[in-house]
Every structure is written in C-alpha cells, then in structure tokens.
What does this fold into?
Amino acid sequence: MTTTLEHPALPEPAILPDFTKPLPSREGDRIIQFREALREAMSEEMRKDSRIFLMGEEVAQYNGAYKISQGMLDEFGPLRIIDSPISENGFAGLAVGAAMYGLRPIIEFMSWSFSLVAADQILNNVPKMLYMSGGQWGCPVVFRGNDGAGGQLGSTHSWCVEGLYANVPGVKIVIPSNPYDAKGLLKTAIADPDPVFFLESERMLGDKAHVPPEEYYIPFGQAALLREGKDCTIVSFGRPVNFCLEADEALRAEGIECDVLDMRTIRPLDIDSIIASVKKTGRIVVVDQCWPFASVASEVVTQVIERAFDWLDHQPLRVNTEDVPTPYSKILEAEYLPNPRKIAAAVRKTLA
Amino acid sequence: MPSRTVYSASVEYLQIMDEEGHVDAKLAKDTLSDEEILKLYQFMVDCRQLDEIAFKLQRSGRMGTYPQNKGQEAAAIGSGYAAKKGVDFLVPCYRENAALFLHGLPMHYILLHWMGDERGNQIPEGVNMTPLSIPIGTQMLHATGIAWAFKLKKEPRVAITYFGDGATSEGDFHEAMNFASTLQVPCVFFCQNNQWAISVPRDQQMNSATVAQKALAYDMPTIQVDGNDLLAVHKASKDAIERARQGGGPSFIEAVTYRLADHTTADDARRYRDTKEVDAWIGKDPMIRLRKYLERKNLWSDEKQKAAEEKAKVFVADVVKAAETIEKPLISDIFDYTYAEIPEELERQKRTMRTSSLGQDPTQAGLAAEPSTY
It folds into this structure.
C-alpha cells in the first residue's frame, strides 16, 4: 500500500460556463418533457466531469420516484448513481463531506418537504461552511427535488420551501418554470461553486416544450421578461409563472397589457429588472406559491418600496397561497393556490 | 420451525497499560516504542499547559468559551498518531486538540478559534483536517462523505471522526454509521466517552451497557478501549485505520475516558458532579500512568518532568502571543466568504458599509466613509 500520497489539493476551482455565449432559440420542434430536460442537464454534465454523482432515494434501480434519472444508472453505474437509505439528513451531510473533498454531488430530495429533517445540514452547515472556514471550504452541492403543492399530497408533503430557505445567506435558489429554463439553469447549478437549492414541481415534470439539444447555461440572477405591457408588472417564479401567463392572456382580451417577469432564481434576485419594469408600469403584483407571511413576495414588495416608492401608482399586491396548511381535498387545494383568476383580479385591482 | 438465534455478538475491551503504568507485554508488542511514547508525552504536557492557560485567558476576559481537554489527551493523541499525517483526514468536534496539533495544526489556531476569529478555521496547506465542528454530531456525516470521496477517487486514505458519548444520541450519528456501513467507506468513528454531556451523565444519555455496542447494529467492527491508555488507544486506532485503508470498511472505537475539567468555561462541573467520582478518575489520569511507566524504565524523573513543564510553558506563552498579536480583521471582511464570488448586492454593502435595509438606491451608493477597522 502506498504511503507517499501528497497532501490533497484543495478542491479545483470551478470552470464557470461562458455566459457571454448567446443562448439557443426557445423555438423549435425538439419537444421533450420537463423531467427529460433535467435528466439531459445532469447527464451532459456527468459525461464531462467525473466528480459529479447523483444520490437520493430511488434514483438508481427504480430510475427515480418521478423518473427523472431514468437510464442514468445504466449509463453511469452504481458508484455515480446511488440509491441511498431513507435518510435525508444522512445524504445531505454526506454530500457536504464529499464536496469538501472535491466531489460535486447532486442530491435528489424526492420532495423538498422531506428536506426539513435535513435542516441542520442544509441550513446550518451547507450555507455556512465557506464563511466559517474563512473562505477555505466551499460546498458546491446541488440539492434538487419537487417543491410545492398541487398534487393532492396533503399538508406534510406539499411544502414550498423557498419562503423558509430564502432567508438564509450562502445558498443560491433556483426555480424554473419551463423545460427550456430547467435544462439551462440546472447545468449552471451543477457548474456553480456555491451550494444551490434547485426547486422543481411535480406538477410540471410532464410539461413539454422545445429544448435545444446543445449545451447551454442560463446565468443566475437574470429574470426572463416573458410578456411586455405598459399597465402592470407581474412578478413570479416557478410553476405560478404559467398561471401568470394565463392571466395575462385573459387580461389582454380586456385591453390590459402586463409585463410578466419570470425571476428564475430567487437568490440571487434580479431586483433591477423588477424595478425597471415598475418604473415603466407603476404597478406590481407578485405571485408566489408560498404562504404570504415573510414570503419571497414580501421581500420583493419591500425592495420595490425601498427603491421605487415614488414610481408607484397603486400599492403593491401579493397573490400567495392562503395562510393555512395545504388542504388535502382537491377543490380546497385548488382554491388555496394562486391561480389565473386571482392573479387577473389583483391586476385589475391595481388599475381600478 | 424451532426458534433459533439469528444474531449474537460481543464487545471486546482492550487495556494494555494499567493505571500503575504496568504493561501487558504480549499486547504491547507492535505498539509504540519508548521513544515514541516520550515524544507523545511531551505533546500531552504541552496540551495540558494550553488548557490551563486558555482557562486563565477566558477568566481574564481575553478569550471566549473554551472546552478543556484535560484527562482525554491519550484518547486524542493515541488515535491521532495512528492516522498518517498528510494522508489521512481528521474530522474533529472540539475536544481532541492533541490529535490536531500532531497533524500540524499550529496551536495558536485553536486559541484564535475560541477567541472568535474565523481565521482559526483556515486550515493551513498540508494539514488534513476539517474545522472544529461545534454542533453535536454533524461532522460525522461529513467524515462519511469525505471517506466516500476517497473511495470514489480510489485514494488509500482514511477519515477519522471524533465525537462524544452524548453525540451518539443524535440522528446524525446513526445516519452516518448507516451510510458508512452500507457504502463501506474508509472511515473510523472514534467516540470519546468522557462520561458527561455537559451535566447529563452517560447512563442518562443512553440505556446501553456500552457505547461500542451501538456499532453492532451496523455490522461494524467495534471495540471498547481504556481511553486513558495511550497504547490501547493507539493499537485499536491503528487496527481500524489500516483495516479501512485495505478496503475493510468502517470501524467504531469507544475510548472510555473522563472529562476532568468542566464541559467548557461556561459551566461549573462541581455543581453537578460528585467529587468522589472525579477523584477516582484523577487516579486514572493518562499522564500519571505514562509517567509511572517511564520512571520504571528509568526514562523519566522529577527533573525531566520539571523540564518538560518548563518547555511547555515557554511554548504556550509564544502560542498566546501569536494568537493575541494577529492583525485584527477589517470590518469589511464580513462580506467576503458568503459566496465563492461576492454578489453585487454584498459588494455594494461592502463598498458603502450600508445594509440593504437602509434602502439605498445602488446608484446613490458611496455615502459612507471607507470601511473602518476596530
């Protein structure tokens, strides 16, 4: 057995993607599902970088509880696609150690609701490791999984963790609303030198859209302006972005035109794009699938008031879930969530 | 179908040097040479001197909370010495100073840490350890992850992680043990069973006869050793580490020792511990028995002891000086290590020393003076 190993080098610096490269077109006929876009992002990165592994419950033999990792065990083998014991705090903490020694773990939470039992690792260790070691030990782990209600999973399985977790400095929080962004953002997350919480929605995994076959990386902290209008700014992130687009559709029939901003990342938050839009429209509705109290929507509204108070023609409005545990009942759950009707009503109110 | 035993196991106890410094010659074979013992003994004297001075620094307001290691030096140094310096990785909690110094951590880093300076956690190049872990038990999972990385990278290294008896009540402990066992990673779990978790005695912490038996549930080789016996600790650690290095997976070691001082400078153990119990353990002090052993071999004397203590005093005085004379951090340093690259908003705060809650328009920044020092 050799005993002449050198001191292990500190983790290699991340090779950051070239964000100046123009992104491929969103238009095209390569229609795939959201889950396939996620798989493509992981597989492309894993082919290039042997430090990356995927660990989580059911990710290997069973091809993922939601079939996101389908076929990946066959391609990458059991040392890189790993079925873990049911032990969220366990694999979260293991990922921290693996990242400290230079690996690039991707951790799948079957649901972000289950991440709550891993809170000490993901909130008390992951975001602080770099700071507490005086810049020495980063923690480049991607934690990803399903976030949010809508599938009749009951109160305990329907968490939107972004409201809770966004309070903690040191992590980046990504929340795509469509397959194109899902691929480009997940690739950036994997390449990123900081810990990233990547929030998917079980309700969107079957959504289909054109996803370019080539490699592309969407930079964090850049909102996408999906619709342009002069009357009101609608800001959202994740699944409710799609409801905002539906609301905008309905409003346009009434002659009301909105800017619809898809934030794509919560940390960093592209507040500049929001402010620029508010300075144009004078009105803002923030749509957020978290509870209203101390939510991401609250933060957006606060920053708008801090920076663009004099431009506002109406007080900012929020469309959150109701402030109750997520209902199990289908009709109650549907009413609990933000929906196009509520969003359109809020926009009309700002213009009344 | 008749009932039958499907599993049975037992836990071995190992002691090589007893409290009087008598050594079991057969077991002592292939352990430490006298030369090595002399070297490690001086290390222990240094560490105990550090404890004494650190306690005084805290009492005189020159340092924050400090956990003394007193009484547990053999456990730390015996295991630390079994790990290969520059190859294996130490994943400590906060009561194994001796092991860390042995692996090259400059002593003043420990003081810096407890003085509240993150620079004490910037482990120097060439020292294989993670920063002290203050939350109970979280570091065991990190050790498992580091060991998993060794396995994936096919590097013949071993991670050894330290924790107390109280930490084995945490979920993190069981999750780390289960992962290490199912993934068969090269990791050694080293429990310093010092009998007390602040004021809670071991028998209230768990209803298990030994801590070591907890590893049986994970089918991990496990042993209980006299944690105040340098030779036993070293032998058990070396066996476990080399087994891990050869691909034999994780092991567990329970070092039975005693926290002779308070939990930290923030409590007073006299309020919750029986003096008789403490007195009995003073008789089992790891350094007393080493001294008796060395004296019996004519390798030690009162003069040598005095010289060793004098040497430690001079050394530790320099350590204190190094910690206290380090340049103060800049206030603006606060922003530097939250992200790998400082985000725009933090950069603005750093530049202006104004928080976002003041609602400053970034284009109007620059109102504050340059970052000040204290």
Observations:
- Residues 120 and 328 of chain A are 28 Å apart (CA to CA).
- Chain A has two domains: 31-210, 224-351.
